Amino acid sequence: MPTVYEAGKQYMGPESTERPLSMSRHETSPTTMQPAGNHRPNACCFCWCCCCSCSWNEDRQRAWRASRDTKLETIPNCEACLKPTPDEVQGWAQSFDKLMKNPAGRNVFREFLRTEYSEENMLFWLACEELKNECNKHTIDEKARMIYEDYISILSPKEVSLDSRVREVINKKMQEPSTHTFDDAQLQIYTLMHRDSYPRFLNSAIYKALLQSVSRSSSES
């Protein structure tokens, strides 16, 4: 797909003949859920947290996996990080900024978002951070296009929730992509996670189990 577009033409993303199954950002299932197959994987993506357990809906998980054939699948399941200290884990409840600035905190929060079917918010935020570190013009163009296709296009199963004003700004900036093409959208998603998902995360079994785990480990050492 070209990176320079005709004057006045909005960037509408890649063409597709069908739209994957969509689901509510915060829809949950009343039943215990497991992925396809006869065994249940370890829901935690980081080895030091063995207490949290995430449920999966078999049908939705199968459809979700089938729809995720995108170029940004190189993003690892979790970021490399050290085991958090009790003070760090407790600090995540004091400030969303502290949580998001800590790789271990982002991993735990991302695991929680996955249980709410809104992991795309964190993936988008991480992709924007990665884009900001690029200097090569060709790489910037390519990554901006992939971010658009994966998280902005209405045809994507991982489309993030953005208002029309921000979408219009992005469409204009995509005519000449830069490291700041998605700044407004990234801020809007960050604010959404802060106001909507973060309070539920602090009350989640995932966070409480981790807090108890690190506290117990600290008292035993």
Automatic annotation (TrEMBL):
Domain of life: Eukaryota
Region (Disordered): 1-36
Segments forming domain RGS: 95-211
Predominant cellular place of this UniProt entry's protein: cytoplasm
GO cellular component: cytoplasm; membrane; nucleus
Locations listed in the record: Cytoplasm; Membrane; Nucleus
Membrane-topology annotation of the record: Lipid-anchor
Name under which the protein is recorded: Regulator of G-protein signaling 20
Lineage: Eukaryota, Metazoa, Chordata, Craniata, Vertebrata
